[in-house]
């Protein structure tokens, strides 16, 4: 029995052993087969092949005008890429040297979106905001590990995530100290760019080692390479910079840095050059065997066939900034290569235009080149957008603006006859302008021009924007521009500055420089950048800004074009009729004796418009007439109270000239792209504006040793919040300003209650400020000083409140001055609403969105009424007659000279809107504004044209005429086949 059991166990054991031996034998044999017999073959195959995914950009959707003209499309381009592999990295410097030579020989440009620039060393980012520049600079340094390095030096092995806010601020402060030049030389070391001269070094060292007996060539090579490896990095950098200039070194650095930054997100070829010429692409294709890692691929690139046409509407595309990185990566964008819409329609409809990326699974060899496609997902183009814009009308609007501005610049202080302007205006700085054309019956924008413009093609391909253009757009040299501006405008001879110069010289201030004084006034050093001593700001909006949409963003006083609204209010409220006659008596001071408002005839010639009705007053732009209308409205509303001061505003809001600040209406015209939305003078908004103005005056007031004979002597005090203040001091100054402004705006507060409020609330904070600020504390303020400072504040608050309730605010508003500020877009829609019977439409640029097959996806063509004014037809007709007289009456029509021979009957209104009370000392001139509509009987379009420093609406009216000519060209030719167009059949 036992023997049987043992025999059975033995048999099972032997079977198990045999099976295990067989399994292990099979494994061993397989390993021998794989590693010995086929090992070399598989190694070669592994070295030669790799699988990867390549993403393919989708063509962006097209943008076209109302008639189907393509304004933004795509074309195929050749891109040169470098794929890092073990083999291509081994020959990196040799390969890149050949690549750069070929690019240069064929006039191609290396892609350079690297923020580090040279000559001089600096960090440049595609942002204009000072805070954004600082954020991007820190992000750039952090991405390259400088924050880790600083953290280890300051806090040892403590992780960045473990640091508190104060410790992180210390790191940021240290990051700010790292100069671009230091980064340049540090990256040379980090990326071993000195290996560019490694073989030169080896060749020279060989001569030395060859004199040593007994060393083979292989031993010499090893010794030299070992010596190079252990050579001090500073010596290596010196060898590199002795042979190559910074520009050449930077070319290699750009590729190395891009490879490093992209390595964090997997396999991505580095783009060396975009949009190669076909001839150049063919050269690289032919030389691929000599250039490891180098390939040419096709990609769609954005193309704008009409270049700068409607650039303010279409916008442009740009590379994703570091600031936007996380937001767009979450949406599936590749920050290293994807572009996004940056403004205009491109920006607003990015998600619709972008399309869906494609993918290609490919097999590559050891040189990084594609062998075959393993699978592919085709990219799907974005949807197309049809605009309401008429490209031909847009072209004429832009051309007319450009030509009219050039003419005004050329004429300067002279008229068309070469005579000096009697009113002293000088239009030589007429460098910016806008024009808007609206279909009055739908709200569709037919043309929207902002000048100067820009060519969005410059931004569609990396490297196309040259250094000069980049700086002009994003980093203008305002110091240089300012000096040239002062010289051109001869501002050093302006009486105000000559008087200042004489006073300084009389004081013995021999170092006083009048040009520097004016420069610092017009283009002051930016105070919101800590420690800044060179970056200036355009305080008075003088420098032309191509990326600023003057049509939708510039808030300007409407000047006399607002008189149409004053007429509407007067007629509707019954304070005048169409037959009411008002006598122009010169200064309008019947209620406020210190008010100096008057008609232009009185100001220029001490003349009078005589007795006029509303139609005649619109025709001649008679200020006195509209002051009287405003006063009658003021009285009807109850005088110095909210109702009395809102008598114009309640009508202006109906026409989209602002909104009720106490209501819920959205401040918008409805346009799809970015806009500002201006506000008409009203009691609430007026208080806010005047409070800020008086607060600024108070800052200066308190900075003097005495305020007035009512207050007496006190030590000056600085309560202006500044970025150079400590946080505690800054917060206290802000609190003081906030308390004072709140009291300025407070209604129904007696003088005694006001003074008590200031003593109880402002005085304690003022004392705390003096105690906290070492500068103020050292002055030694007495109780008497504090008391007198509070008294000065009290008088300023009282003055502000008095000014806020004066009827003069309404007078100024009635002629389009004061605090009235609107965009050209608002003004155009105001006129459209006025002449179409009182329907205020939502204005829009997009007519519809279509798929690639032409099927409509979303239809926006149906008009949307925002509100109906309810203004009577008789009022509208009366105001229209006044506008007709402006263009057709030879007895004073302010636009008659422009339209007297025009075959399409139309109406309009000129405006001269003051920029600043002392604008000539700034080299500025009044805005030239013109609004109009046509045809007269059945209006179809409304226009608004503005030229900055254009002086008079009559000077800019020719732009409106050119627009009418293009829009009505077929009708004009039927009336007069020989009509001479300004631009038709030209260009």
From TrEMBL:
GO biological process assignments: cell wall organization; peptidoglycan biosynthetic process; regulation of cell shape
Organism field: Clostridium tepidiprofundi DSM 19306
Pfam families linked to this entry: PBP_dimer (PF03717), Transpeptidase (PF00905)
Subcellular location: Cell membrane; Membrane
GO MF term list: penicillin binding; peptidoglycan L,D-transpeptidase activity
Keywords from the UniProt entry: Cell membrane, Cell shape, Cell wall biogenesis/degradation, Membrane, Peptidoglycan synthesis, Transmembrane, Transmembrane helix
Family annotation (PANTHER family): PEPTIDOGLYCAN D,D-TRANSPEPTIDASE (PTHR30627), PEPTIDOGLYCAN D,D-TRANSPEPTIDASE MRDA (PTHR30627:SF2)
Residue stretches making up the Penicillin-binding protein dimerisation domain: 57-373
This protein's name: Penicillin-binding protein 2B
């Amino acid at each position: 029995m036992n023997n049987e059991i043992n025999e059975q166990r033995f048999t099972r054991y032997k079977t198990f052993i045999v099976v295990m031996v067989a399994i292990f034998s099979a494994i061993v044999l397989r390993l021998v087969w794989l590693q010995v017999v086929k090992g070399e073959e598989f190694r070669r195959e592994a070295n030669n092949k790799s699988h990867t995914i390549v993403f393919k950009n989708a063509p962006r959707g097209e943008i076209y005008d109302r008639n189907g003209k393509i304004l933004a499309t795509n074309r195929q381009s050749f891109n040169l890429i470098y794929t890092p592999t073990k083999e291509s990295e081994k020959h990196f410097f040799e390969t890149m040297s050949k690549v750069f030579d070929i690019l240069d020989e064929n006039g191609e440009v290396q892609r350079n979106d690297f923020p580090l620039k040279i000559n001089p060393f600096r960090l440049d980012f595609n942002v204009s905001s000072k805070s954004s520049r600082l954020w991007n600079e820190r992000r750039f340094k952090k991405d390259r590990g400088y924050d880790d390095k600083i953290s280890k030096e300051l806090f040892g092995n403590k992780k960045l995530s473990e640091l508190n806010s104060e410790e992180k601020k210390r790191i940021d402060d240290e990051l700010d100290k790292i100069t671009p030049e230091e980064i340049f030389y540090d990256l040379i070391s980090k990326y071993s760019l000195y290996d560019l001269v490694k073989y030169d070094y080896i060749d020279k060292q060989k001569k030395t080692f060859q004199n040593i007996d007994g060393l083979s060539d292989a031993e010499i090579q090893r010794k030299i390479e070992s010596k190079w490896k252990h050579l001090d990095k500073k010596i290596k950098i010196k060898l590199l910079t002795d042979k190559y200039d910074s520009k050449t070194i930077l070319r290699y650095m750009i590729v190395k840095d891009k490879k490093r930054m992209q390595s964090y997100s997997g396999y991505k070829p580095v783009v060396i050059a975009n949009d190669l010429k076909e001839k150049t692409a063919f050269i690289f294709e032919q030389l691929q065997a000599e250039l490891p890692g180098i390939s040419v691929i096709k990609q769609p690139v954005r193309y704008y066939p009409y270049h700068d046409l409607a650039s303010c509407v279409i916008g442009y595309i740009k590379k994703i900034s570091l600031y936007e990185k996380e937001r767009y990566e979450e949406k599936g964008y590749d920050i290293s290569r994807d572009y996004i819409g940056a403004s205009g329609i491109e920006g607003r409809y990015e998600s619709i235009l972008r399309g869906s990326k494609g993918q290609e699974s490919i097999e590559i060899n050891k040189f990084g080149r594609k062998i075959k496609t393993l699978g592919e997902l085709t990219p799907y183009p974005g949807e197309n957008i049809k605009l309401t814009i008429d490209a031909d009308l847009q072209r004429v609007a832009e051309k007319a603006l450009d030509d009219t501005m050039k003419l005004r610049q050329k004429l300067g202080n002279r008229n068309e006859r070469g005579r000096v302007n009697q009113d002293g205006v000088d239009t030589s700085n007429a460098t910016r302008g806008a024009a808007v054309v609206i279909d009055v019956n739908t709200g569709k924008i037919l043309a929207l021009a902002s000048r100067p413009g820009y060519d969005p093609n410059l931004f569609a391909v990396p490297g196309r924007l040259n250094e000069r253009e980049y700086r002009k757009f994003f980093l203008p040299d305002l110091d240089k521009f300012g000096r040239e501006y002062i010289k051109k405008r001869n501002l050093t001879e302006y009486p105000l500055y000559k008087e200042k110069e004489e006073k300084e010289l009389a004081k013995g201030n021999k170092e006083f420089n009048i040009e520097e004084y004016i420069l610092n006034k017009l283009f002051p050093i930016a105070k919101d950048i800590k420690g800044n001593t060179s970056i200036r700001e355009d305080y008075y909006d003088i420098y032309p800004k191509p990326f600023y949409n003057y049509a939708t963003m510039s808030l300007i006083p409407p000047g006399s074009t607002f008189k149409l609204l004053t007429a509407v209010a007067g007629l509707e409220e019954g304070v005048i009729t169409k037959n009411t006659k008002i006598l122009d008596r010169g200064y309008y001071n019947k209620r406020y004796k210190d008010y100096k408002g008057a008609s232009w005839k009185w100001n220029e010639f001490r003349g009078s418009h005589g007795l006029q009705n509303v139609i005649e007053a619109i025709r001649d732009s008679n200020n006195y007439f509209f002051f009287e209308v405003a006063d009658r409205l003021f009285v009807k509303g109850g005088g110095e109270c909210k109702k009395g001061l809102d008598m114009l505003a309640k009508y202006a809001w109906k026409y989209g000239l602002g909104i009720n600040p106490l209501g819920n209406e959205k401040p918008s015209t409805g346009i799809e792209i970015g806009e500002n939305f201006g506000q008409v003078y009203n009691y609430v908004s007026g208080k806010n504006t005047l409070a800020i103005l008086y607060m600024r005056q108070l800052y200066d007031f308190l900075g003097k040793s005495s305020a007035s004979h009512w207050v007496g002597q006190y030590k000056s005090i600085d309560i202006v919040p500044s970025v150079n203040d400590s946080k505690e001091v800054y917060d206290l100054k802000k609190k003081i300003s906030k308390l004072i402004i709140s009291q300025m705006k407070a209604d129904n507060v007696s003088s005694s209650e006001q003074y008590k409020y200031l003593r109880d609330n402002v005085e304690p904070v003022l004392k705390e400020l003096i105690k906290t600020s070492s500068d103020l504390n050292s002055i030694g303020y007495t109780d008497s000083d504090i008391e007198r400072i509070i008294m000065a504040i009290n008088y300023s608050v009282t003055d502000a409140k008095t000014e806020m309730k004066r009827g003069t605010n309404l007078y100024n508003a009635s002629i389009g001055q004061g605090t009235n500020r609107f965009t050209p877009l608002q003004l155009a829609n105001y006129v459209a609403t006025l002449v179409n019977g009182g329907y205020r439409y939502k204005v829009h640029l997009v007519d519809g969105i279509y798929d690639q097959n032409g099927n409509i996806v979303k239809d926006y063509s149906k008009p949307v009424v925002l509100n109906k004014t309810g203004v009577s037809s008789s009022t509208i007709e009366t105001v229209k007659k006044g506008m007709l007289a402006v263009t057709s009456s030879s007895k004073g029509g302010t636009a008659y000279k422009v339209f007297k021979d025009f075959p399409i009957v139309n109406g309009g209104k000129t405006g001269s809107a003051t920029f600043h009370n002392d604008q000539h000392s700034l080299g500025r001139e009044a805005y030239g504004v013109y609004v109009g509509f046509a045809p007269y009987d059945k209006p179809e379009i409304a226009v608004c044209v503005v030229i900055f420093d254009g002086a008079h609406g009559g000077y800019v009216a020719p732009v409106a005429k050119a627009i009418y000519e293009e829009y009505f060209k077929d009708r004009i030719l039927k009336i007069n086949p020989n009509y001479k167009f300004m631009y038709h059949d030209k260009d």
